Amino acid sequence: MTATDSPPAAAAPSPAVRPPGSAGWFTPLLRRLHFFAGLLVGPFILVAAVSGALYAVAPTLQKVMYAHELTAASDAPGVSLAAQIEAARAHLGDGSTPVAVRPAPEAGATTRVMFADETLPESTTRAIFVDPATTEIRGDLPAYGTSGALPLRHWISDLHRSLHLGDAGRWYSELAASWLGIVALAGLGLWIGRFVRSRRGRRDLVRPNRRHTGYRRLSGWHSAVGIWVVLGAVFLSATGITWSTFAGAHVSDLRAAVGEGTPTLTTSLDGAAAGGEHAGHAGHSAAAATGPADSATFDAVLAIAQRINVDSGDVEIKPPAAAGKAWVVQEIHRSFPTEVDAVAIDGSRMQVTDRVDFADYPLLAKLSRWGIDLHSGTMFGLANQLVLFALALGIAALVVLGYAMWWRRRPTRGLAAAPARGALGRAPWWGIAAVLVVAIAIGLFLPLVGYTLAAFVVIDVLVGWRARRAAPSGTRGTAAR
């Protein structure tokens, strides 16, 4: 090499080539799932969240709205149930027999005597509210379902459960509950990814940075609110699913299959029941009378139940629904500690034929009971309701913020583009298999998720195919990505 010769230029380092399947694919897939699910199912979740906020405080609203009916004129000791029931029957004046009685749970509360009424909707009774001390009639209202919800609470509950649209509305509710957990978990995965990659902005992921503006400000609020409500959103989704039409049936079947179903009280007085642990009337005929459903019998069966396992003030007493059936006395105390023990009594012999104790419930049955009571705001009273109210508003805010982010990122004309497709195509074979298995399993267990997810995939494939057809030949590869 001469002095004038220059050394050869150093070759520019070639970019590292990732082996097939090693390119990031899971986070982009989560981002696309979160985007499309939030965009398309967001309205359902928003309606469920807003109505859920109202549903959360419904028990307290009911106490305020119906204070006169629920409150006695004094807290003096009450007379017998028989006298209270007779006062309710005299109020009706038609000789009706109660289908259930809920004695005053505490001093200063009223007794609820409930009658069948063919003019009322199914699962609805006519409740007469009686002052236990004076037998004064304090009110006459319809009561709905096993919860005994009064008109205002029932209206709010039906709004949240079905938008007053019947079965179609219940499908909306199940769709919202099913997708809520999926959207929340996908968002949590994206949040964790950002937290791991971020060096300086981790604090902004927990509380929004007020110095940010525009899209970054909206994104900061979305991330911060999301991480605070994500566990609550998953909880509401899981407990809401247990009440749903399709997925709820699958939950019940699964619990029954593993022996974790809720125990049921045997009320039949046939020979099979007579041989039970608590029976004392072997060979008793199913067609035999089970005791007159007169007023005095309510006092008698309650006294027996209180000697067995009923020690809560919140109690419901039901006479036999037909010949060969037992009286039922059941605790209905849904606040903590949960008291839902029940006992069946042969009214003709005044003997216990069966009992169910909450302490003996399987674990999943207990968790289901607690989850439902937490979801409905009855477990811890007003504190429970306020937390649910704030949680529901937080979920509603996330939906609104998500739409605001989508709108903010739109171009001058048209709508904001979705996250790029093709993430699953970059996944290794095991990743593709895992996604398919999880998607099929979720679709089978949550049918409405399965149907809508399949629809999303079909629409996405058609939109991608159309984009490739419309793109110039030199850019079709880019459009496909």
TrEMBL record:
Domain of life per record: Bacteria
InterPro entries: PepSY-ass_TM
Bias type Low complexity, positions: 271-288
Transmembrane portions of the chain: 35-58, 176-197, 218-243, 386-406, 427-445
Pfam family for this entry, one: PepSY_TM
UniProt KW keywords: Membrane, Transmembrane, Transmembrane helix
Location of region: Disordered: 269-288
Record's protein name: PepSY-associated TM helix domain-containing protein
Source organism of this protein record: Microbacterium galbum
Organism classification: Bacteria, Bacillati, Actinomycetota, Actinomycetes, Micrococcales
